[in-house]
Design goal:
Layout lengths: L4 E9 L11 H10 L4 E4 L8 H13 L5 E9 L8 E5 L6 H7 L8 H8 L8 H11 L4 H10 L3 E4 L13 E3 L4 E3 L1 H4 L3 E3 L5 H8 L11 E3 L11 H4 L10 E5 L4 H4 L1 H4 L5 E2 L11 E7 L9 E2 L4 E5 L6 H12 L7 H10 L5 E7 L5 E7 L2 E3 L5 E3 L11 E3 L3 H7 L1 H11 L3 H35 L2 H15 L2 H41 L9 H36 L2 E2 L2 E2 H18 L5 H68 L3 E5 L6 H11 L6 H9 L4 H9 L3 H8 L3 H12 L4 H4 L6 H8 L6 E7 L4 E4 L5 H12 L7 E4 L7 H14 L10 E4 L3 H6 L4 E8 L9 E8 L4 H8 L4 H10 L8
Parallel strand pairs: 1-2, 2-3, 5-8, 8-9, 14-26, 14-27, 19-25, 25-26
Antiparallel strand pairs: 1-10, 3-4, 4-5, 6-7, 10-11, 12-13, 12-15, 15-16, 17-18, 20-21, 22-23, 23-24, 27-28
């Protein structure tokens, strides 16, 4: 994976080459593997007899795919101390047994001959083999010579069990008045071994946490194992393999990886039973189907990742891709959209592997659907994706924006205080309130026409009464009788005329059927048939003509029949004239239309009373329930906002206590800009002076308070409270109250604008003061340089939350003297043994950040001089891994400032840089 991660290490094991151990190399290695140890060293007493054999076994295990490495070592008794100081010498993995025998043991007088002679010193008769075992227990080496010879072979010195009787601390001289340890021997050590039962206390002691140790040193916990836990008795022995060990961060599992603890004695070492957990969400990997980094996988560390390279190498492309998937961009940002268009290319897919705080792997992908509209804009149809967590991304120049925007500072406070859950609760409550408002408006819209109809009920009732009064007049009653007679008169005339018409038609049709043209032949039969035909036609014609004449006579009689001495039709016409004149005098068309109107009005009244009003009553009850619900939701919303403000105040206090030289407070004065912006929009085009808006703002009226004035219809109260004109108050009431008389319905006003106003709160404002070391007092944040401001904000941002923090070139916004401070704070923010931290992904061209902050994963990228398959630019990953990986180290050294960064890393602890 080419990344720094925690590895299980035990550097103090014994095999049967030690006089007091019976473990064979085969059994030892198998048990090491079973216990999950990645890197180990066998340090037998004064001898290296099993090194070659163990090397062969480990090489065989590596060929089987087992991730394990062996470092040759030896435990040497030195000539210092009352019971002899023991030291462990650990050599690089490439140092062979032969090299140690030829170039190390002779200098220490630890050759087999030297040890045999020591064994025979008091027992000359012992055989060589027996004398060798005795000599191993009695032979001592010169301390200074051990150190020198170990360094000549590139080894490191570990002080074995330093607090025991044969440990190096027995030689330390404590000066009570200074409480300071003074011993040159300690300076010869590279690493201190801690006690098994007091490992954490010892580690802090050697890190000089309390200033009572001579220097800062790395420390490890080893097992000093002599046994395998084969039975209960062995299990209780602390010197059982797998019982004690150290977690060390390393990329390559080798001596080079181990020695990074010399440079980072705190960051690279963790003494705990379990591997330090990752409790924060992180981006595990990113891969694209095309574009600049086509098919190149970026596999990130959960901790610090730095992306390095020369100018124009494509460092920022990685951040651009992450921004795209997380939707952290403005579609109107033409510069970013243009980069995305050219470096990712449309229709290509960005795949992200994400790991949430519970360790669950979640893969997401987003396809770029981008169309260039013109030289100034793009159309982005890329579909957003659902993500398990959010990220914080700051592009170049973004930190300076935070120094200028109040809302960005407030967001940082929320991040630091872990207040996002309250913000999420507030957002949830806002959605509930918006849903409530939408339902009220929908309900109101559903009955708005019904309300208009119902509001006309009294007019309809009045019209019915007026028409009924008119229709009850005697003249109208009398004329209704004539109208009824006229209806049947007209019906009779109509029917008789219809019969007459049909008679005339029948005569024509009969003539066509019966008038037959006979030939002139002298044919008796034909002559007779002709006579019959003419006779029939004559009889039918005569009968029909008589009937037709009678009908016409009847029509005439009906048309002129009399009532008394007057023709009825003339009487009717006189009455009609009289009736018409009466209608005109009373503004009516005719009695039929008025009767129809009366019927229509009565139908409308029935509809209102039986359908419209019940529907309105039912819907109003539903709205009342929604309004009651809204009052409860609003109270919960206001309570959440009050709680948020209280927690912001507590967060600011904590920051002041925990952050050196920074004083953070939540100002008593609220920010009313949201209220101001709302009022300006409402009053635009309404002839309201700007001063009137400022008067309302100066009155410190929140949206909640303004809305309450409107609900209470307290125009006078608002006018007095806000010191505004009645015209201004009237405009506000008119715009927010709606046109419906809600009092009649027993409802509070319903309008989208009023609902919006209720949610507008006065924002908290962050006040930041920084301690000026020159003037010895706190000064307002704004009085410092932009670079200083960015440095202070980064101090807060590094611990803001557990979400991934991604920054493009943070050093560009820092004053040079503050970069070191930023690196120190970054180190403090990195993952500890409890897993409490966040993932960092930084694009940087300052190699001090890469090296001194000890990046767990470094990506050196470069721009290739060839085009990709799509005709665009192409990039590559030149090297990746931890800073100790040779290819990464060389890549860093090739960049400006790389050599100096590695030198500074060594100088932190007084070490020399080795190539």
């Amino acid at each position: 994976m080419n990344e720094v991660k925690w590895r299980k290490v035990d550097l103090h094991l014994h095999s049967d080459a030690s006089y007091d151990c019976n473990l064979t190399p085969e059994a030892l290695v198998d048990e090491v593997i079973r216990c999950g140890i990645n890197l180990f060293s066998v340090t037998d007493h004064n001898c290296i007899d099993n090194i070659t054999k163990i090397r062969q076994i480990v090489d065989s295990k590596n060929e089987q795919g087992i991730e394990i490495e062996f470092l040759p070592g030896i435990e040497v008794r030195t000539d210092k101390g009352g019971r002899a100081i023991h030291v462990l010498v650990i050599f690089p993995e490439y140092i062979t047994e032969e090299v140690i025998r030829d170039k190390f043991l002779p200098d220490l007088s630890l050759t087999r001959t030297d040890i045999v002679n020591k064994g025979k010193e008091n027992q000359p008769s012992l055989k060589d083999e027996e004398a060798y075992k005795v000599g191993l227990q009695k032979k001592y080496a010169n301390f200074e010579t051990v150190v020198k010879a170990a360094k000549n072979l590139g080894g490191i010195i570990i002080a074995a069990h330093p607090k025991s009787q044969n440990g190096i601390e027995q030689e330390l001289d404590y000066t009570n008045t200074q409480n300071e340890l003074i011993c040159d021997l300690v300076k010869c050590m590279d690493v201190m071994e801690v006690r098994r039962q007091r490992a954490q206390q010892d580690r802090e002691f050697y890190l000089n946490k309390n200033g009572n140790f001579i220097t800062i040193m790395a420390s490890v916990k080893n097992s000093d194992a002599h046994f395998i836990g084969a039975n209960p008795a062995d299990e209780n022995d602390p010197r059982v393999i797998g019982k004690h060990y150290t977690w060390i961060k390393m990329d390559t599992i080798d001596f080079n990886g181990l020695t990074q603890i010399l440079f980072e004695p705190e960051l690279r070492v963790c003494i705990s039973e379990k591997e330090p957990p990752i409790n924060h969400p992180y981006i595990k990997g990113i891969k694209v189907s095309g574009g600049f980094y086509k098919e190149l996988p970026f596999n990130f560390s959960p901790e610090l990742n730095t992306i390095i390279g020369g100018r124009g190498s494509g460092k920022s492309v990685v951040i651009d891709l992450i921004r795209f998937v997380f939707g952290k961009y403005d579609k109107t940002d033409f510069e970013y959209m243009d980069r995305l268009y050219n470096l990712l290319r449309p229709s290509n897919i960005v795949n992200l592997d994400l790991v949430d705080a519970n360790g669950k792997l979640i893969s997401v992908s987003r396809t770029l659907e981008l169309t260039k509209q013109n030289d100034k804009s793009f159309i982005d149809n890329s579909i957003p994706v659902e993500l398990p967590f959010d990220v914080e991304i700051f592009g170049q120049g973004k930190l300076k924006e935070i120094t200028k925007k109040a809302e960005e500072k407030l967001r940082l406070i929320d991040e630091v205080g872990g207040l996002n859950h309250i913000l999420e609760d507030i957002e949830t409550k806002i959605r509930e309130l918006e849903d409530n408002a939408l339902k009220q408006i929908e309900h109101l819209y559903d009955i708005s026409k019904d309300i208009d109809i119902a509001s006309n009920k009294s007019n309809i009732q009045k019209s019915i009464q007026e028409i009924e009064t008119l229709l009850n007049e005697p003249i109208l009653q009398e004329f209704q009788k004539f109208e009824e007679q006229k209806k049947y008169f007209d019906l009779i005339i109509k029917n008789l005329r219809s019969i007459a018409k049909k008679k005339e038609q029948f005569l024509k049709e009969t003539s066509n059927f019966l008038k037959i043209e006979f030939p002139t032949l002298e044919d008796t039969v034909l002559q007779r048939l002709k006579g019959i035909s003419e006779q029939i036609f004559k009889e039918i014609e005569d009968q029909e003509k008589d009937g037709l004449e009678r009908i016409k006579q009847i029509i005439k009689e009906v048309d002129t029949f009399k009532i008394g001495d007057k023709i009825w039709l003339e009487v009717y016409r006189d009455k009609l004239e009289e009736y018409t004149k009466y209608l005109q005098e009373h503004g009516m068309e005719n009695i039929i239309d008025e009767t129809k109107k009366l019927k229509d009005y009565k139908d409308q009244l029935v509809e209102i009373e039986n359908n419209v009003e019940p529907k309105i009553r039912k819907t109003v009850e539903e709205i009342k329930a929604l309004q009651n619900q809204r009052q409860q939701l609003l109270q919960e919303y206001y309570n959440l906002n009050n709680r948020l403000s209280e927690m912001r105040i507590n967060t600011a206090k904590r920051l002041t206590e925990e952050t050196e030289m920074i004083e953070v407070t939540i100002s008593q004065d609220k920010n009313f800009n949201k209220v101001r912006n709302f009022l300006i929009e409402i009053f635009t085009g309404k002839n309201v002076q700007k001063k009137q808006v400022e008067n309302i703002i100066n009155a410190k009226l929140t949206g909640k308070e303004l809305a309450q004035f409107i609900k209470d219809k307290d125009l006078e109260g608002l006018t007095n409270k806000a010191n505004i004109t009645s015209h201004t108050a009237g405009v506000l009431f008119g715009e927010l109250s709606g046109t419906i008389n809600f009092d009649v319905l027993g409802l509070s006003p319903i309008s989208d604008e009023l609902f919006q106003l209720e949610l507008i709160q006065a924002d908290d404002e962050v006040a930041i003061k920084i301690f000026d070391t020159d003037e010895k007092k706190y000064k307002n944040f704004s009085r410092f340089s932009p670079g200083q401001q960015c440095s202070f904000l980064l101090s807060i941002l590094l611990k803001a939350s557990n979400k991934p923090l991604i920054i493009d070139q943070p050093e560009d916004e820092l004053d040079w003297q503050y970069i070191k401070d930023f690196i120190n704070k970054l180190q403090q923010s990195k993952c500890n043994c409890e897993g409490s931290s966040r993932q960092f992904i930084f694009v940087t061209h300052n190699q001090n950040i890469t090296v001194l902050a000890d990046s767990e994963k470094v990506f050196k990228v470069k721009h290739l001089p060839i085009e990709n398959d799509e005709g665009g630019k192409r990039g590559d990953i030149e090297a990746c891994g931890g800073v100790e990986r040779p290819s990464v180290k060389n890549a860093i050294l090739s960049l400006e400032g790389g050599q100096e960064a590695f030198l500074a890393r060594g100088m932190k602890y007084g070490l020399k840089l080795s190539n």
